Amino acid sequence: MAETYDAIVIGAGVIGAAIALELSRRGQHTLSVDKLPASGYGPTSSSCAIIRVYYSTLDGTALAYESYFDWKDWPQYLRVSDERGHARFFECGCLVMKTEMNGHLEKHCALAAELGIPHEHWHPAQIKERLPVYDLRRYGPPKRMDEPGFGEPTGGELAGGVFFPTGGYISDPQLATHNLQRAAEASGAEFLLGRAVVEIVEERGRVAGVVLDDGGRIAAPVVVNVAGPHSGAINKLARADRDMKISTKALRQEVVHLPAPAGFDFEKRGLVVSDSDIGCYCRPESGNHILVGSEDPPCDPREFVDPDDYDRDFSDQGTTQACRMGQRIPELGIPSRLQGVVDLYDVSDDWIPIYDKSAIPGFYMAIGTSGNQFKNASVVGRMMAALIEYCESGADHDAEPLQFRLEHIGRTIDVGFFSRLREVNPESSFSVLG
Ligand SMILES: Cc1cc2nc3c(=O)[nH]c(=O)nc-3n(C[C@H](O)[C@H](O)[C@H](O)COP(=O)(O)OP(=O)(O)OC[C@H]3O[C@@H](n4cnc5c(N)ncnc54)[C@H](O)[C@@H]3O)c2cc1C
User: Fold this and answer.
1) pLDDT tens digits, 231-271
2) Is the CB of 386 under 6 A from ligand 1?
3) N or C: which end of the chain has fewer CB within 10 A?
């Protein structure tokens, strides 16, 4: 390991690893530091890794659609092999139920039309054809198990849904991150795993490196905070929070894995479904399981926690999610001992990420990924590398934000959209849907 690098990336999750890859592809000698023993072992490893192309904002949607093309041809994007193999993209498509809560998806369809994203309107019979185990009676608005009326239909059937074929999920998010690490290493990047950053060094008014938990000091003129739920703590270490209008916090989340009902192969015939009528999303999981997460409806409590001290066991929330899924799939069996994951989102005030510079020259951040940015890792990697180059060459990104070209979809976005200095964006869904 050298004592000096061009850039230090704090965090080797999927976005941190993609930033290291894209910086090293631009000739920067990078060191990624992560306190865990392997890349992608933090929240990335618990990610549902759903690849979808619908968001509530135009820029969010554009970023997601651009990223889809990298997942579509992952080996070509990586340009290298990995001794553990490549993560697989299961392109099963995503179905979003039309409800009053999401305005029957009129806004999402308008954004999709503007960006040329394929989508189809499915009426209830088409949904039943694809998912014969589904009961389309309405249960919304979603409730918690202990609320009166839980599990009782609220009248009528869902009006249908919108199917986005260019979506699906990644088989193994940790492996995808390992793939990015190997690709970055092939371009000269280095990874230091099992070591925590405990101090950010500032000299003569700009960042100068980091101090590690073994006392070691590594110098670099650029440091990037990609520390996930610890992003707020790293910003505090750097005193980078002093001008920020948007903050980030760690939010506890439960995702349950339920066996599919007997006789239906959800793993092969299922798809990603976003269902605001029951406040849950789901996707196929290996072993013919259905993975079920919450879409953060108002009834579900938001449990902001200390990322170093929180309960990793299931609470009633996991059971509530399983039972809500059981409203849609009446034949679903719910095991007495739930399986799945309990982990953290790094949530920003408006659930839109912060991809930005900071008040300290040389200190950057890719944070606040709010449970929905796994899919965007490759593009965020490119965008952050371009942003760092732009700022380090003397440009003032706060005054004249970088305009970044999305090559696959042929569009340019204003990176100022993701600024730490923005006002809370009222267009956001203020949920994991972004
Ligand atoms: C349950 C769950 C489900 C999700 N589902 C989806 C989904 O379906 N689709 C989607 O697109 N996104 C999803 N996400 C979000 C997505 O997984 C994250 O946005 C993404 O993984 C964040 O990657 P990252 O690189 O920012 O960091 P993380 O994976 O959060 O990693 C941060 C890393 O920083 C390291 N670190 C922290 N502090 C220090 C320090 N002081 N020194 C050294 N290292 C440090 C940690 O050890 C960790 O490895 C989900 C997230 C969760 C938790």
Assistant:
1) 999 999 999 999 999 999 999 999 999 999 999 999 999 99
2) no
3) N
Return the pLDDT at 428. 86
Strands 206-212 and 363-367: unpaired
Q: Tell me the C-alpha to C-alpha distance, in Å, between residue 347 and each of 122, 169, 288, 309, 433.
A: 32, 21, 31, 17, 12
The burial of 107, by beta-carbon neighbours within 10 Å (0-12 exposed, 13-18 middle, 19 or more buried), is given as middle
* Cα of 151 from ligand 1 centre, angstroms: 33
Atom of ligand 1 nearest to the CA of 369: 19
Work out the mean pLDDT of the chain and round it to a whole number. Answer: 97
Distance of alpha carbon 231 from alpha carbon 89, whole angstroms = 28
- For the Cβ of 39 lying below 6 angstroms from any atom of ligand 1, the answer is no
Matching residue, tokens 């339920």: 258
For residue 358, pLDDT beyond 90:
yes
272 Cβ closer than 6 Å to some ligand 1 atom: no
pLDDT at res. 2: 74
How far apart CA 67 and CA 50 sit, in angstroms, is 12
Ligand 1 neighbourhood includes 294 CB (under 6 angstroms): no
Q: Which atom of ligand 1 is nearest the CA belonging to 366?
A: 26
pLDDT digits (tens, 9 = 90+) for 51-70: 999 999 999 999 999 999 99
How far apart (Å, rounded) are the C-alpha atoms in residues 57 and 283?
23
Q: Kindly report the protein residue whose alpha carbon is nearest to atom 14 of ligand 1.
A: 371
Q: Residue 212 C-alpha to ligand 1 middle, in angstroms?
A: 20
Centre of ligand 1 from the C-alpha of residue 98, in Å:
30
In DSSP notation, 27-94 reads T--EEEEESSSSTT-SHHHH---EE----SSHHHHHHHHHHHHHHHTHHHHH-S--TT----EE---E
- Amino acid in position 154: T
- 234: phi then psi, degrees, rounded to nearest 5: -70, -40
Question: Of all protein residues, whose CA lies closest to atom 33 belonging to ligand 1?
Answer: 11
Q: Is 177 in the pocket of ligand 1 (CB under 6 A)?
A: no
Q: How confident is the model at residue 173 (pLDDT cuts 50, 70, 90)?
A: very high
Tokens of 399: 């005054």
Among the atoms of ligand 1, which is closest to the Cα of residue 11? 34
Proportion of the chain above pLDDT 90, given as a percent:
97
Question: What pTM did the predictor assign?
Answer: 0.98
Distance from residue 381's CA to the centre of ligand 1 (Å): 14
H or E element that contains 176: helix 173-186
CA of 40 to the centre of ligand 1 (A): 8
